[in-house]
UniProtKB/TrEMBL annotation, chain A:
It comes from the Bacteria. Its EC number is 3.6.3.-. Coiled coil: none annotated. Keywords: ATP-binding, Hydrolase, Nucleotide-binding, Transport. GO terms for cellular component: plasma membrane. It is an enzyme of class 3 (hydrolase). Pfam families: ABC_tran, BCA_ABC_TP_C. GO terms for biological process: D-alanine transmembrane transport; L-alanine transport; L-isoleucine import across plasma membrane; L-valine import across plasma membrane. Residues 10-258 form the ABC transporter domain. The lineage of its organism: Bacteria, Thermotogati, Deinococcota, Deinococci, Thermales. The keyword Transport applies. This is Lipopolysaccharide export system ATP-binding protein LptB.
Length: 268, 457
C-alpha cells in the first residue's frame, strides 16, 4: 500500500447515488486526513445525510469508491463498516428506548464483547468476565462523556443534550478510529452547543479520533472545523479552510441566493 | 388508605378466606380467596403482611382442594398466588422462593392426586409456557413476528413420535419402537433438529422485514403441517391425518421408588402425570434460566437493539442476519424440546395439534402476557391454556345445567366451548385496546425504580 493511501483516514472518490430520477449525491470526492475535524455543510436537501449514508453502508453508491485508511469499504453493510472502526450518531437521536444508558453503551461494545453463545447461556466464568470488562469499559466511556451517574436510567429519560452525548458515548464504545456526527448540535441551546464543541475537540485531542460532521450551526462549524466541504444539490461546490469557505462566493450564493454574495461576503 | 388500614384489611380478608376455605370449601370461599390475593396486590400493605397473607391464602386453597377437588376456581387461586408472588414487589426473595416451591411441589400435587385433571392442566400450561418463552425470544426480544412457530413444535413432536412408535419400521429396518428411555436422547436430538430447521427456515425468511416475515413464516408453518398430513405416501413417514400412536414413554420405575422413599405412593392413574408435571417444571426452570441468561448477555441486548431500532443496531456493528437467526434458532429449539414431551405425554401425535391456530395461540400468550416479560409470558400461557381447556368448558356446562333446570331459555347454539376462537379474539382485542403492553409488561429495570420509590415512602 502506498504512503499516500495511508495518509488519508477517509478517501471518497466520485461517489454518486440516484433515487429514481433524482441525483441525490453527484460525483462527490473528498479526502479526510487522520486526526482532522472535517465538516460537511450545505443548505437543506443538499444531500448531506445521503452522503453520510453512502459512507456508512446504509446505501450502496451507484458509482465511486470509499476507502477507510486505505481499505475499500464501498458497498459494505453498515455492521461491517462499523466493525472497521467507524462510529456514528444520527440526525434524529436513535437511542434504544427500552434500554438503560449503560445498556445502550454496551450495545456499542457488542463486537468487542467476546463471549460465545454457549458461555452466555450457561453463565460461565468466561462470560461473566467478558461482561464485567464490557461494563467497566462502558462506565469509563459514560464517565468520559459526563453521564456516569445516569448509567441506570432509561436512555429516553435523559434531557436532550445528554441524549446527544449518550449517542456519542455509544459510538465510542465501538472503539472507532473515525466518528461521523450527523447534526450533533441540532436542537441544542447555546450552552449545550458550547459543551459539544469542547467534547468534539477533546475526542480528537485525547482519543486521536478523526471526526467528520454534518452541521447547520455555522458558528460551531466555523470554530471547530479544520476543513469544510460544501454540498449543494448533491454536488460538492467548495472545499477548504473555514476562512476560505466563509468568503467563497459560490457558497454564499448557495445559502443566500444569487446576488447576495456582494453584501453578505465575509459575514456568512 | 393508610398502610395500617391496608394491613388490617388484607390480613382480615386473608384470615377469613382461610377459615372459609377450610371449613366450607367451595366456589364461594375460593372467590373470596381470589379477592384476598387481589387486595394483597393492590392495597400495598407492609412487606410482612404481603408475604403472610399470600402464605395463608395458599394454605387455604390447598386445604380446600384436598376436600373438594372438583372446584377449579380453587386451583386458579393457587395460580393467582404464584402470580402475586412474582409480581408484587418487596417480598424478600427467599420467602418468594419458598412459598413458590411449596405451592408447586405440595399444593398442586395435592390437588392433582385428588383430581388428575389439575396435573394435566399443569402439564399443558407448562408445555405452552415453555414454548411461549421460546417465542418470546423471537417476538418479544428480537421483535421478529413469527406466525409459524407451531411448526417447530410439530417437528419436535414427530421426531420422537416416529422413532418412539412402530412408525419408523415403515421406512427403516431395525426394531421399533425404540425403548422409552431414548426419550431423553430424543429431547436433545429434537433441540438440534429444530434449531437447524429454524436456521433453514430463517435463512430466507429473515432477510425480510416486518409484515413480509410474518407472511412467510405463516406459509412455512403451514408447509410443515401439510407435510405431516401428507407424508403417509409413497413412504409412510407420518401416518398422515390419523396420526401416530402409541408413542413410547420413558421408563419411570426409578421415579416410583424415589417417590415411595419420600412417602408418596403413586398409582397407574397419576404416576406418569406426576412425572411429566415435575419434568415440565424442571424444563420451565431451565428455560427461564436460559431466557434470563441470554437476556442479560450481549446476545439478548443485541436482540432488543434490533427490535428497538434496526438501523441504529446495524450502525453499532451488530450483524442483522446472524443475530436474527440466532434468535430464531433459539426459539425453535425450545419449541422442539417441548414437542418431544408433548408426544410422550399424550402418546399420540397428529397434524391437528399444529395448525395455524396453535401458532396464533402461542403468539397470543406472549402478547397477552407482555412481550419480552418472562413472568408475563408464563402468566399469558397459564391464562390462555386455562381458558381453552377448562374455563370455557366449565362455563358451557354451567349454562347447560341452567338450561336443563329451565332457569335459562337459551338456544343450543350458545355454547361457549364452541366459541373458543371468538372469546380468544375478543380477549385479544380488549387487551390491545386497554393494556397493549400486556398483563405483566416488560420491566427492564423499572422494578428496581419502583422498589426504590417505595423504600422512600
Amino acid at each position: 500500500m502506498s504512503a499516500t493511501a495511508v495518509a488519508s483516514a477517509l478517501e471518497v472518490q466520485s461517489v454518486s447515488k440516484s433515487f429514481g430520477g433524482l441525483k441525490a449525491v453527484n460525483d462527490v470526492s473528498l479526502t479526510v486526513r487522520p486526526g482532522e475535524i472535517f465538516s460537511v455543510i450545505g443548505p437543506n436537501g443538499a444531500g448531506k445525510t445521503t452522503f453520510f449514508n453512502l459512507l456508512t453502508g446504509i446505501y450502496e453508491p451507484d458509482e465511486g469508491s470509499v476507502r477507510f485508511f486505505g481499505k475499500d469499504i464501498t458497498g459494505m453493510s453498515p455492521d461491517k463498516v462499523a466493525a472497521q472502526g467507524i462510529g456514528r450518531t444520527f440526525q434524529n437521536i436513535r437511542l434504544f428506548a427500552a434500554m438503560t444508558v449503560l445498556e445502550n453503551v454496551l450495545i456499542g461494545h457488542h463486537i468487542h464483547t467476546h463471549s460465545s453463545y454457549l458461555d452466555a447461556m450457561l453463565r460461565t466464568p468466561r462470560h461473566l468476565e467478558a461482561e464485567r470488562r464490557a461494563k467497566e469499559r462502558a462506565m469509563e466511556l459514560l464517565d468520559y462523556m459526563g453521564l456516569a451517574r445516569r448509567a441506570g436510567e432509561l436512555a429516553t429519560s435523559l434531557p436532550y443534550g445528554e441524549q446527544r452525548r449518550l449517542e456519542i458515548a455509544r459510538a465510542l464504545a465501538l472503539e472507532p478510529k473515525l466518528l461521523f456526527l450527523d447534526e450533533p448540535a441540532a436542537g441544542m441551546n447555546p450552552q449545550e452547543t458550547d459543551r459539544l464543541k469542547e467534547d468534539v475537540r477533546r475526542l480528537r485531542k485525547e482519543l486521536g479520533l478523526t471526526i467528520v460532521l454534518i452541521e447547520h450551526d455555522m458558528s460551531m462549524v466555523m470554530s471547530i472545523s479544520d476543513r469544510i466541504a460544501v454540498l449543494e444539490y448533491g454536488s460538492k461546490i467548495a472545499e477548504g479552510l473555514p476562512a476560505e469557505i466563509r468568503t467563497n462566493t459560490r457558497v454564499i450564493e448557495a445559502y443566500l441566493g444569487k446576488g447576495a454574495a456582494g453584501q453578505a461576503g465575509g459575514r456568512a | 388508605m393508610s398502610r395500617q388500614t391496608a394491613n388490617v384489611v388484607v390480613l382480615g380478608v386473608a384470615g377469613l378466606s382461610l377459615a372459609l376455605l377450610w371449613l366450607t370449601p367451595g366456589a364461594l370461599a375460593g372467590f373470596l380467596g381470589l379477592i384476598g390475593v387481589a387486595l394483597t396486590a393492590y392495597l400495598r400493605p407492609a412487606m410482612a403482611v404481603r408475604a403472610g397473607s399470600l402464605a395463608l391464602l395458599a394454605l387455604g386453597f390447598t386445604l380446600a382442594l384436598s376436600q373438594v377437588p372438583r372446584v377449579s376456581i380453587l386451583f386458579y387461586g393457587l395460580v393467582a398466588v404464584l402470580v402475586a408472588l412474582i409480581t408484587i414487589p418487596g417480598i424478600p426473595r427467599w420467602i418468594k422462593g419458598l412459598l413458590g416451591v411449596a405451592v408447586l411441589l405440595i399444593s398442586v400435587p395435592i390437588a392433582g392426586f385428588n383430581n388428575t385433571f389439575f396435573l394435566e392442566l399443569g402439564i399443558q400450561i407448562g408445555i405452552y409456557a415453555a414454548m411461549a418463552l421460546g417465542l418470546n425470544v423471537v417476538v418479544g426480544m428480537a421483535g421478529l413476528l413469527d406466525l409459524g412457530y407451531a411448526a417447530f413444535f410439530a417437528i419436535g413432536a414427530y421426531t420422537w413420535a416416529i422413532f418412539g412408535s412402530p412408525q419408523a419400521a415403515n421406512f427403516l429396518s431395525g426394531s421399533f419402537p425404540l425403548p422409552g428411555n431414548y426419550f431423553y436422547l430424543f429431547m436433545a436430538l429434537a433441540i438440534i433438529t429444530t434449531a437447524i430447521t429454524g436456521l433453514l427456515i430463517g435463512l430466507p425468511a429473515l432477510r425480510l422485514r416486518g409484515d413480509y416475515l410474518a407472511i412467510v413464516t405463516l406459509g412455512l408453518g403451514e408447509v410443515v403441517r401439510v407435510l405431516a398430513n401428507n407424508l403417509d405416501h409413497p413412504v409412510n413417514f407420518t401416518n398422515g391425518p390419523q396420526g401416530i400412536t402409541p408413542v413410547s414413554r420413558p421408563d419411570i420405575g426409578w421415579f416410583h421408588s424415589l417417590m415411595s422413599s419420600v412417602g408418596v405412593e403413586l398409582d397407574a392413574r397419576t404416576d406418569y402425570q406426576f412425572f411429566f408435571y415435575l419434568l415440565v417444571l424442571v424444563i420451565i426452570g431451565v428455560v427461564v434460566l436460559v431466557n434470563i441468561n441470554l437476556g442479560n448477555s450481549r446476545f439478548g441486548r443485541a436482540w432488543i437493539a434490533i427490535r428497538e431500532d434496526e438501523t441504529a443496531a446495524k450502525a453499532m456493528g451488530i450483524p442483522m442476519l446472524g443475530t436474527k437467526l440466532l434468535a430464531f434458532a433459539t426459539g425453535a429449539a425450545f419449541s422442539g424440546a417441548m414437542g418431544v414431551i408433548f408426544a410422550a405425554q399424550r402418546t399420540f401425535v397428529s397434524p391437528e395439534s399444529f395448525t395455524l391456530l396453535a401458532s396464533i395461540t402461542i403468539l397470543g400468550m406472549v402478547v397477552l402476557g407482555g412481550m419480552g416479560s418472562i413472568p408475563g409470558v408464563i402468566l399469558g400461557a397459564a391464562a390462555l391454556t386455562a381458558i381453552n381447556t377448562d374455563v370455557l368448558k366449565s362455563f358451557s356446562e354451567y349454562l347447560n345445567n341452567l338450561r336443563q333446570a329451565g332457569v335459562l331459555n337459551l338456544p343450543n347454539q350458545v355454547e361457549p366451548a364452541k366459541y373458543e376462537r371468538l372469546v380468544f379474539g375478543v380477549i385479544l382485542v380488549l387487551m390491545m385496546i386497554f393494556r397493549p403492553q400486556g398483563l405483566i409488561p416488560e420491566r427492564r429495570h423499572q422494578l428496581e425504580i419502583e422498589e426504590a420509590k417505595e423504600a422512600q415512602q
